[in-house]
Amino acid sequence: MDDARPSGTREVSARAHAIAAPTDFERGAPIKAARSQSPVKWFFTGLVFVLAAWLAYALVTNPGFQWQVVREYLFAEPILAGVLVTIEIVALSMSIAIALGIVLGVLRLSRNNTAYVVSSAYVWFFRGTPVLVQLIFWYNLASLYPQIQLGIPFDGPKLLSFDSNVVMTSFVAAVIALSLNEAAYYAEIVRGGVLSVESGQALAAKALGLSPVQIYRRIVLPQAMRAIVPPTGNQIIAMLKYSALASVIAVQELLYSAQSIYSRTFETIPLLIVASLWYLVLVTSLSMGQRYVERYFSRGAMVEPGRFAPAGKRMTDVFARTGVHLGRRSSEGSR
Amino acid sequence: MSSPMVHAEAVVKSFGRTPVLRGITLTVERGETACIMGPSGSGKSTLLRCIHHLEAIEAGRIYVDDELVGYSERGGKLRELGRKEICRQRAQMGMVFQHFHLFPHMTALKNVMEAPLRVKKLRPDEAARAGLELLDRVGLADKADSYPRHLSGGQQQRVAIARALAMRPKVLLFDEPTSALDPELVGEVLSVIRDLAHTGITMLVVTHEIGFAREAGDSVIVMDQSSVIEAGPARDVLSNPLHERTMKFLSTIL
To answer: Looking at the domain assignment, is residue B139 inside a domain?
Structure first.
């Protein structure tokens, strides 16, 4: 082809060789390119291992942690009951928050002025005041309205009437406060998600004759979910930890259960560790669930199934090079 | 002679203070393929959207199949129709967009089935059968279960045409259906549209493809600066343009 280029001859000979026996490249063998190694990287990897070892040593040798007590209470009945209440609070509050948040978020995008103002005012108020204050406020609702009545407003006839102190138990107050507060944040997440959907989608759906509700339900929201699900996972995890605030109004959730034990036995640190371990277990299982939900809602938009792998893969590479194997396929590590 | 399928009368529309349509009047007969041509920004796409009532108009009347689109007239006053009526009218027209706008979270078949299922309330098996037939018609029966992402631009546009056809529209509106396509994919889409032209459906096609307009178009409408400057049988307009601006425009896209 071009004799001037020295590589020309090499190309030709390579091709001749290929006819005789296919090269690795032609067999589709993976490229074995070594990642560039720098001494700085080695230094920091080593430093991390040293720090981790030191941390483990400190955790084991300091008698103050009282690991014996931790083990004793980890599966104690009041703690497990607390875990259950925490899960109940989070599940209930989050369900209400998501439903209300979707409505508020969609209203905020509405061309209807009233809808926009109502939704904006809601978000403004509930995002603008501390959730702890709201929690205590709802718990003390009885002092403001001793009776909760359903009926015609402005002193009209009442159909149903409840005693506030009976209805507004600490559990109910916690669920109301957490869900109303969360709905304000969730409304913004929904709004962002809807705005992330290309406007042509709604236009195409409109052109087909779909009604506004159908356009939202069938076309816009399912696509908005891709942008909504990751922050939703984040919010559920945040909610899990906010639920600890409910201990302030004596809801017997996880933290409160731990507190009521250590207020008796003074084993404060080990019981806080027990509570923390459970929070970690809950958060970890939530994160794993989130992965699957995300994968479902990105259908039709996935690049490849292994989209979530890169970060983990890189970690295994580091471990593989330092001689630690995490039970992954060795082919990945040997790259 | 029967009444025209699409008839627009002195349609006016502006975005803010910029006029986009300055009194557009045009007629498209039943079964006719009308090509709308003109430089970008001349209001062609907006005209299509107004015919579909995806945009409200400020003055004038648009009739499709003798029915006033988007408004009801009582005592000389126009009032916008209710949502249900607007949806019903929109369902009688099909629109194909420059950028396809397929629903990315649905397979090709689900895209085509969506409107018959939700708007016409067909049974799923009926909608699926009709959908497969339509995909077959645009040559994509084997791609029924593919998501739009995995289809080429030309294939996506053909699915979009099948989707528009699924509601058995009286009129099909094409908004630059091949402008977003790679050159080698334009042909497959145009040939599908050309085949449709023979089925007797009324079509309005905004296009820059002169060859297509000459071959498949019955009439050509040339727009410039928000007005119709020339309209007539395709052959006449394209071969012997009367208007100087038409001549200029045609020479730029040849």
So the answer is: yes
Mutate: best of A198, A201, A208, partner B, most B CBs <10 A? A208
Average pLDDT over residues B214-225: 92
Element (H, E) at A280: helix A268-297
Q: Is residue B153 part of a domain?
A: yes
* Burial of B66 (C-beta count, 10 Å sphere; 0-12/13-18/19+): exposed
| HEC assignment per residue over A57-107 | HHHHHCHHHCHHHHHHHHCCHHHHHHHHHHHHHHHHHHHHHHHHHHHHHHH
Closest chain B residue by Cα to residue A205: B115
Band of pLDDT at residue A160, cut at 50, 70 and 90:
confident
> Measured between alpha carbons, how far is A27 from B245 in angstroms, rounded to an integer?
60
Question: What chain A residue is nearest to B165 in terms of C-alpha separation?
Answer: A208
Closest CA to B100 of A217, A198, A302, A194: A198
Contact B26, B151 (CB under 8 A): no
Q: pLDDT at position A166, please?
A: 79
Domain enclosing residue B105, as ranges? 93-168
Tell me, yes or no, if the pTM score tops 0.80. no
Q: Which residue of A has its CA nearest to B82?
A: A211
> Residue ranges of the alpha helices (H) in A109-169?
113-128, 131-139, 141-144, 164-167
**Cβ–Cβ gap B101/A300 under 8 Å:** no
Total number of domains in chain B: 1
Nearest Cα residue to B116 out of B100, B132, B136: B132
* Model pLDDT for residues A78-127, shown as the tens digit of each residue: 999 999 999 999 999 999 999 999 999 999 998 889 999 999 999 999 99
| Predicted ipTM of the assembly | 0.91
Show the domains of chain A with their CATH numbers. Answer: 85-251 (1.10.3720.10)
User: In a 3-state reduction of DSSP, which class is residue A30?
Assistant: coil
User: How many residue pairs from chains A and B have C-beta atoms closer than 8 A?
Assistant: 73
Q: Tell me B207's DSSP state.
A: -
Confidence of residue A205 (pLDDT cuts 50, 70, 90): very high
How does pLDDT run across B141-182, given as a tens digit for each residue? 999 999 999 999 999 999 999 999 999 999 999 999 999 999
